Amino acid sequence: AQDGQYLDIVIVVDQLLTGFDAPQLNTLYVDRTLKDAMLIQAYSRTNRIADNQGKPWGRIVNYRWPA
């Protein structure tokens, strides 16, 4: 998104799980089995701090078991 604009929703199949930074990301919905570094990388997307957003934590909704 450009300065002053925000992404409302992004649907991802495989791209953007690595090398993508969106500090405003609050909730990650996961519907695939992730392991090892890919799991940490994807889940960490919600940990980014967004300036002036008041975002104390991120949320992960996982539709798969095991994660």
TrEMBL record:
Keywords: Restriction system. Gene3D superfamilies: P-loop containing nucleotide triphosphate hydrolases. Transmembrane segments: none annotated. GO terms for biological process: DNA restriction-modification system. It holds the Pfam family T1R_D3-like. Residues 5-64 form the Restriction endonuclease type I HsdR second RecA-like helicase domain. InterPro entries: HsdR_RecA-like_helicase_dom_2 (IPR055180), P-loop_NTPase (IPR027417), Type-I_R_enzyme_R_subunit (IPR051268). PANTHER family: TYPE I RESTRICTION ENZYME ENDONUCLEASE SUBUNIT, TYPE I SITE-SPECIFIC DEOXYRIBONUCLEASE PROTEIN SUBUNIT M AND R. This is Type I site-specific deoxyribonuclease, HsdR family. It comes from human gut metagenome. The lineage of its organism: unclassified sequences, metagenomes, organismal metagenomes.
